[in-house]
Amino acid sequence: MISLFSANIRVLLVSFCLSTGFLCFSSAVQAQEKPLLIEKINSKLYLYTTFNTFDGTRYAANAAYLITKKGVILFDTPWDSTQYQPLLDSIKQKHNLPVIAVYATHWHEDRAGGFAYYNRIGIPTYATKMTNDLLKANHKAQAAHLVDINKTYKIGGQSFVLNFFGPGHSMDNVVVWFPEYKILDGGCFIKSSEARDLGFTADGDIKSWKPSLARLLTKYPQINMVIPGHDAWRDKGQIKRTEALLTEKQ
After folding, report:
1. 206-219 and 238-249 helices cross at what angle (nearest 10)?
2. Bridge-partner residues for 1, per DSSP?
3. pLDDT of 63-89, one tens digit each?
4. Is the pTM of this model over 0.85?
5. Is the pLDDT of residue 3 over 60?
6. In whole angstroms, what separates CA 202 from the centre of its chain?
7. Please, are residues 102 and 126 in contact by the beta-carbon 8 Å criterion?
8. Architecture of domain 32-249
């Protein structure tokens, strides 16, 4: 009787998951096993996620791409080097458009690691002078072109701004603002609402991070959506969580 009861309970639980659409453990594992995830934010802006391991823990790295009339613009490169080309292929298959530019939000591997590959195949790469200087100092491939911070770029009917509000996660971290949608791609400057700590900070400035964040909020008091650099991104508590983690470090 007990074993039969247990079996029936298992069947009911599986049926419940399937019928209600809840994410069961097996489907969560399957999602994590996919090396590249692409999710729609709106008709022009998409979020893509790749994965890698740091200090023995597997993390998701979030990045964005923007669809314009001239082609697709990437903001940051995949963290997983095996996904540099599959990302291009997926975008081509999904939108029938080429990637025409790649911008990095700072110099670390999860943001600019694909520069060497994209330079080699002829896709223009962009970064701030500070990011390029840090890439050079760390013997990494640099962007082919420099960008101006706080300038509104208009490409193919879409616009975006790369802002530098000061050091934080890294000395060169910039954020990307999409004014038409009031969406902020925070990169690693903004932590996930589920983040337990500030993560890797050896190349940054924790003391300057909170004032830098305050300058961002002064510039953009109304933000519809924030994309954090890593992990969960759908919640709306990313900035508050980042502030809380920084307060703990004061």
Report:
1. 150
2. none
3. 999 999 999 999 999 999 999 999 999
4. yes
5. no
6. 20
7. yes
8. 4-Layer Sandwich (3.60)
Q: Taking Cα atoms as reference points, which of 168, 237, 243 lies closest to residue 200?
A: 168
8 Å CB contact between 140 and 160 = no
**Average pLDDT along the chain:** 89
How many whole angstroms separate alpha carbon 87 and alpha carbon 37? 9
Token digits for 33? 């096993």
220 neighbors 187 (Cβ within 8 angstroms): no
* Amino acid letter, residue 97: L
Q: Is the pLDDT of residue 22 over 50?
A: no
Pairing of strands 158-163, 175-178: antiparallel
Beta-carbon count within 10 A of 57 CB: 7
Tokens of 91: 């975008």
Cβ neighbours for 188, distance < 8 A, ≥ 6 positions apart? 105, 106, 108, 110, 111, 169, 170, 173, 199, 229, 230
